[in-house]
Known about the structure:
By secondary structure, the chain is α/β, with parallel strands linked by helices. The protein is built from 19 helices and 14 strands. Helix 4 crosses helix 5, helix 6 runs parallel beside helix 7 and helix 15 crosses helix 16. The longest helix is centred in the middle third of the chain and has 19 residues. It is globular.
Amino acid sequence: MKLYSTNNHNLKVDFATAVFNSMPLDKGLYMPVSIPELDQEFISNIEQYTLPEIAFKVASELLQGAVPSDDLKNLIDDAINFDAPVVALDDHTYVLELFHGPSLAFKDFGARFMSRVMAYFLKDNEKTLDVLVATSGDTGGAVALGFLGVPHTRVTILYPKGKVSDIQELQLCTNGRNIHAIEIEGTFDDCQALVKQAFADEQLNDKLRLTSANSINISRLIPQTFYYFNAYAQLKRQGKTELVFSVPSGNFGNIAAGLLAYKMGLPVKQFIAATNVNDTVPRFLETGVYETKPSVQTYANAMDVGAPSNWVRIMDMFGNDFKAISNIIKSYRFTDEETLAGIKAIYNQFDYIACPHTAIAWLALEKYRLENKGDYTGVFSSTAHACKFPDVFPEEIKDKIEIPAQVGALFNKEKQATKMDTSFESFKAYLNNY
């Protein structure tokens, strides 16, 4: 597998290099030189395959021998060992539940696959791998659990103070061992900027072997394609093949993976990018002008991103063709008030408890339906378990949320986090003192 930088298509590297370097020095993002299209026989019979079988097929086509078949199969069987069911709410509305992994968020797909890939390529006598990750909520917990105890790795997670839920913070800060947490006096964008500055700093890169576990890492994106193909397979078994996917979108890695699956041959009628008031992409699709702005805090904190990194990948996939992008992606934004109303409406109509991000995806699907009639099936992604956001729910709904055992155990652990300002000098000094 060969990959290029979105800033320089002539800069090509192999898969292992892209995994460990995460971001090219020119500050682009890695993308496959060619996106393979799955054979039509596989797509036509996809309902006959399980999630691990689908994952193996998709990964094999993308990686093109970068990991030998037997090793890749073992890696996938270990990483993707939980389900991603499509649950019917009514005959035309389904929720794709992506929170059945260990950290109760969709990011388990990417984090577990990536940690296994890195462990596979690491050699015993090599320098310790320093994994840097910025999180607005769920990424950090998934990465922490994905890398916990992985030999020759050290993980540093940056998160914005007061802008993640209590359970999300405990998932970041109670692991110990090779997992370190930094509480930043700022926003997610500040955290992400510090990570990107570290990758661009020559002195740090000479001293440390740095890589990222954010969705800028191509090995995070690849496994997220698996659940789109698997959702199609589940619905095809029910005779439903014209699908609209509504995706909660913050850093735009989730929907970028869906679009990668689309480029590989997944039949999709439409993608919907559902955002909160951090609406850089909806504004772009309305005006044609891409203008970032500082992120603001909302109930859907994992989507509090003002400068979504993965948007450049989406632009690149479509050759920066605004018309092509706006045809396949529709986008809607929602306020906190609308999000709360959505949570209540889903509960009242379907007796289903949706986290804030999930509620926004449902709201976007409903808005799309008002504008686009037709006999299609709407699938909205549930990206996190509702128990992670107890303060958002009205008491009558909050009392109905089932608390998984792994969450209850977190409250008996001690929080361990380093407080830090937003200056790169402070972060660099921290890393230099490892």
